[in-house]
Amino acid sequence: MLAESAYFCAISACAAAVFAGSPTVTISAGEIIGTTLSPLNQPTSTGHANAYLGIPFAKSPPERFSPPETPDSWENPLRAQELKPACIQQATGRTPTQDFLAEEWNIVKLHQSEDCLYLNVYAPEDASPSNKKAVLFWIHGGNLQIGSASFPFYNGTSLAVNEDVVVVTINYRLGVFGFSNCPEICKKERNVGFLDQRLALDWVSRNIEQFGGDATRVTIFGQSAGGYSVKQLVANPPTPQPFQAAIIQSQQVLLGRNGKENYYKLLKAFNCRDLPCLRDVPAEDIKVYTGLKRLSFPPTSDDATSLTDVRDSFCDNKFANTPIMLGTTKDEATIFVKQFFDLAKDPWASEDLVFDFLGLGDERDRSSLKRAYPDAVNPSPFAQEFSDLAPLERQYPDGLRALPPNERLMQSVVQSEGPKYFGGRVYHKEEPPFGQHQVLDDLRSWKLALLSRIVTDLVFNCPTASISGYISDRGYNVWRYRYCAAFPNLTPFPDAGAWHGTEIPEVFGTYPLKNDHGKATEQQIRLSAHMQHVWAEFAKNPDKGPGWAKVQPNSSDRSLADFGSNGSSKHAVVPWSSVDAACKLVQTYSDLLGFAW
């Protein structure tokens, strides 16, 4: 894990064209009239999808903080032709990351409501109860705080038209509305956001065949917090199990562990003593307060919908024995680390913000992590310019060897008001090529790249390696991938790389043909077609696998699929060792900090 950002704005203009068709289905609750869509960013495509937008899968609005209930029937035909509002978004959280996401993802302009428990169905035109298709069930990301099935890049039209599958996208409650941490509520009913997801899955089991979907061939997939949700569904599967396979993309949530404390802060803020009082507070007031105070509400570990450590599911013989594909992007963390660099006055302060956010306050731990990336540490951006200073570097303690050569000296240059004299050169504050700004720019770029690699491994890549290996070692079928491509029309800032969520428009076929950042490239178009096919074929026949070797149990000879590397529009099979070089050290910190399992 993503989002409706400035660099995705053009997607809303290319998601799908509306045609005059009005497909109709009848389920137990009543008749539903949909619409007909065609993918706009594929001008050679002549196919259409039957789209049913905004179908209630629960009573909506639900009672605040309570589990969802099955919706009532309707007498008149339900016109399911427009997307419904998003659930209430928590645009800020415990760190500036949430402020950054709110600004970049345009959350403030998103129509939001507690009346939000709806789903969308995209089906091939020829799908019917007698011609059933495999189903892809999408759970959006957003740190369990933001996101919506209505975001244009989750439009399932291209997958339905080009890959002959049914796509379902859902809303679920977020933030305190979805994960209240309220001790007055039974533990197994506190994670109503996860319960919303489960009721939507139950709705699919009961109704999807009327849309031409095969209820016995449902693959759940999600990204970021959506991937985390899929992981929890696999670790705590409903009975009977409503899915046959799972795809977990860049799974993670970063919400801290003080949910109950934050719930009590919320009560106090509105002069409430109990839950009934808080149910009467206007939703907008709660939204504003939790945002301003940066209150986060993580899921409660309840042994029913959520586990802090999914390995416990194996101990209890609960983990679903189902084919799993999981993976990450090459540069997950750039989009998060970048915002700390935008906030801080210099690269050293930025580094402190990043490590403090991760919970790494000890300088020895920080240096240890940086030493896991020797190719990034040496050579530094100053190796050539300041090679004559190498003897001086020996004066610094070994604990600083993980820093780029001469960084402490450069810090002295940056902080000085007058000229500095090193190695026979004079460094002025403003004078190029060795002035303050040049030093700062070089060092900022270097640190951004290094810290992004560390956070990518710490939070995403190494946990994914550990989980996939652990699952495989217990006899389950699992396949791993990595997404490596970067394209101009999906690049929010220079050197963003394959950032967290950038694979989503490729999987859905919703990349913009053209926007302010650039045009779709031939590689991008072909890679998207390939990834759509891989995802869809896995949904159709997950036991066969996605097209590369599964993770071998108890083996050091493991491989994964690398999508879009080196300009390719396909995937290459590469060894884990080429991706996980730092994980032997980094995974220890992932485990200690609660990112691993």
UniProtKB/TrEMBL annotation:
<keyword id="KW-1015">Disulfide bond</keyword>
<dbReference type="GO" id="GO:0072330">
    <property type="term" value="P:monocarboxylic acid biosynthetic process"/>
</dbReference>
<dbReference type="InterPro" id="IPR000997">
    <property type="entry name" value="Cholinesterase"/>
</dbReference>
<dbReference type="Pfam" id="PF00135">
    <property type="entry name" value="COesterase"/>
</dbReference>
<dbReference type="InterPro" id="IPR019826">
    <property type="entry name" value="Carboxylesterase_B_AS"/>
</dbReference>
<dbReference type="InterPro" id="IPR050654">
    <property type="entry name" value="AChE-related_enzymes"/>
</dbReference>
<dbReference type="InterPro" id="IPR002018">
    <property type="entry name" value="CarbesteraseB"/>
</dbReference>
<dbReference type="GO" id="GO:0017000">
    <property type="term" value="P:antibiotic biosynthetic process"/>
</dbReference>
<dbReference type="InterPro" id="IPR029058">
    <property type="entry name" value="AB_hydrolase_fold"/>
</dbReference>
<dbReference type="GO" id="GO:0004104">
    <property type="term" value="F:cholinesterase activity"/>
</dbReference>
<feature type="domain" description="Carboxylesterase type B">
    <location>
        <begin position="451"/>
        <end position="556"/>
    </location>
</feature>
<feature type="region of interest" description="Disordered">
    <location>
        <begin position="543"/>
        <end position="563"/>
    </location>
</feature>
<comment type="similarity">
    <text>Belongs to the type-B carboxylesterase/lipase family.</text>
</comment>
<dbReference type="InterPro" id="IPR019819">
    <property type="entry name" value="Carboxylesterase_B_CS"/>
</dbReference>
<keyword id="KW-0378">Hydrolase</keyword>
<protein>
    <recommendedName>
        <fullName>Carboxylic ester hydrolase</fullName>
        <ecNumber>3.1.1.-</ecNumber>
    </recommendedName>
</protein>
<feature type="domain" description="Carboxylesterase type B">
    <location>
        <begin position="22"/>
        <end position="342"/>
    </location>
</feature>
